[in-house]
Design a protein that fits this description.
This protein is of the alpha+beta class. The protein has one domain (about 35-164). The chain is built from six helices and three strands. It has helices at about 15-30, 55-70, 105-115, 130-135, 145-150, 150-164; strands at about 35-40, 75-80, 90-100. A three-stranded mixed sheet has the order 1-2-3. β1, α2 and β2 form a beta-alpha-beta unit. α2 (about 55-70) packs antiparallel against α3 (about 105-115).
Length: about 160
């Protein structure tokens, strides 16, 4: 049983309050350090919606392009595509983790173009992918390691257990 707690319901801050919070977030947030891993296996050719308007891979491509458009110039982003047809441990590096640079810049455009070239083929090397990153040198200019890098040893240990 939980102890009794005093609950205080906060009022909505209104439009001006929301604007202040968003401005503070943009000013004080740390740059992101992201590795986007896209499933490029044959199952991604299946329909994403009942109306069959998009494949799963098409929907994933749209999501990645939208993310690239919304991230800040200082955010470091890399993209991998995983598929057993990729070779090299089931992974194709579409771009290393590096700062994105300005909106509409060359790096964002190159990453989006590379994501657009993905084709669904092969199987999903789910267990091989974390071990591919384990021990791999990381060149990044980000000031703090991302969550996945801080836990990579744990992930690699788990991946070794899964494949035994």
């Amino acid at each position: 049983m939980l102890p009794e707690a005093r609950v205080r319901i906060l009022r909505s801050p209104g439009p001006d309050g929301v604007d202040l919070v968003l401005d503070a977030w943009r000013e004080f947030r740390k740059p992101a350090n992201l590795l986007l891993v896209m499933d490029g296996s044959a199952s991604m050719a299946d329909s994403a919606f009942a109306d069959r308007s998009l494949t799963r891979l098409d929907a994933a491509k749209i999501a990645v392009r939208n993310a690239l458009d919304r991230l800040d110039p200082e955010d470091a982003v890399g993209v991998w595509a995983i598929s057993s047809a990729s070779g090299r441990g089931g992974r194709a590096e579409l771009g290393p983790v590096r700062p994105l640079g300005p909106a509409g810049g060359d790096r964002r455009t190159r990453l989006a173009d590379r994501v657009n070239t993905l084709r669904a083929r092969g199987g999903t090397p789910l267990y091989a992918t974390p071990t591919t990153q384990y021990g791999r040198p990381r060149a990044t200019t980000a000031s703090t390691p991302c969550w996945c890098c801080r836990t990579e040893r744990t992930v690699a240990r788990a991946a070794r257990r899964w494949t035994k």
